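Chain A, query sequence.
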Amino acid sequence: MLRAIFSNNLDSKLSGSISGTTPFQYLGFIIFWTLSLPAIWFPPQTIRHLFTAKAAVVPIAGIAFLIWAIVKAGGIGPVVHQETTISGSKHGWAFIASLMNCIANFATLILNAPDFSRFAKTKKSSFWSQAISIPFCFALTSLIGILVSSASTIIYGRTYWSPLDVLGLFLENYKSGNRAGVFFIAFAFALAQLGTNISANSLSAGTDMTALLPRYISIRRGGFICAAISLCICPWNFFKSSNNFTSYLSSYSVFLSAISGVVFSDYFWVRRGLLKLLHLYTGDKNSDYRFNKIGVNWRAYVAYICGILINIVGFAGDVGQDVPIGATYIYRLNYFCGFIISFVLYGVLSHFFPFQGIPISNIFKDKGWFQEWQEVDDFEVSKDLSVVEYGEAPKPEKSF
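Chain A, predicted structure.
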């Protein structure tokens, strides 16, 4: 956007290096970071209009960009005609590695979907919106990226893995029409990234931090803390090459898969859908979520760490270390391995070291589902949580 407004060679005018990146790239990051701060201020239910605008603008801009690139190239490039150079097990493992990268791309959404789905009026409205939109939108986004990169091979004689690099090259012809087109498509990209940043990063970080220190941290404050941390990790280093980016995604999912396994096991296997709302909002010693004197469920931490350890050797190999081939194969299935190990181990530990709040005596043999619909809008809690009464687990209406 800056190059479309001021000068095509604005990036070369700002020479030097800042924290491992160019001054121009750093300027873009700081501007985006600053403009993101006002969006963090608003609570989740009021920021929804940002996502409405994103849903309307971004698909139109993405499809327009794809058509522009195809017309400019006179076709979609060699991607659909290119024959694979690998076969057999190598082809299979390459497919699996690509699949893991796809899962890693929305591994964050798998975890923080409840931050938004809890505002849904019914269970079905939350389920169907995700079941339809996530596969379709991710597939469309990937398709646009692949075809634009393929078209760049014809236009420039080189394949650019980032569509934004291709968009920037359109400014070589610095006419008003190209400048306007690049500006508005780049604006749509920025709007898309802002929506993703707020939903997948700021709100989820803020929600988690409120659970750690609810007296001092709100969702808003947690979002601002997340924004401050983002300055310290130099995220532009992840985008120096396609290999850096895919390696980052794979390693990222290692940690998220282990968390997902614990959460899934706790709700669907151990507690069988049982949630006590009053217990969730108190640190009273009788709460089902107290676990011990310091309020920590050690079983979850053990399962989480083991879910990471199964992949850690393969991760070392992914960053250039010599490791056994078996560890590499396990790491190629990193999300599934981390999820399954943490899921099973948490259930086993919860069985042999039970805690208060498990509605069954044997999680391997007993059947039953204890989920009950809660009218949260009419949910009233006494300010004095010490007087809250703790009831017994509800009896299941049916077993299956």
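The chain has 16 helices and no strands. The chain has a mean pLDDT of 84.
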